[in-house]
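ZP: hey, is the zinc ion complex queued? I don't see it on the tracker
AM: it wasn't, my bad. submitting now with these inputs:
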Amino acid sequence: MLKLPPGQEPAAGDHRTSVVERGSFASARCSCGWTGPARRARDRARRDARAHTQD
Ligand SMILES: [Zn+2]
């Protein structure tokens, strides 16, 4: 499991997204365990995260 800083522990039904960079790619991640596809643009990853939280 990923260790999160205090105050960012995932809560049930809570979707906290962040963008993680891997080399030249960025992908969205959520506290629920969801991970978006790797994107070349951070903005795209952020859009993936937004689409996920709107589900
Ligand atoms: Zn989620």
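AM: back. The mean pLDDT is 87.
ZP: great, adding it to the tracker
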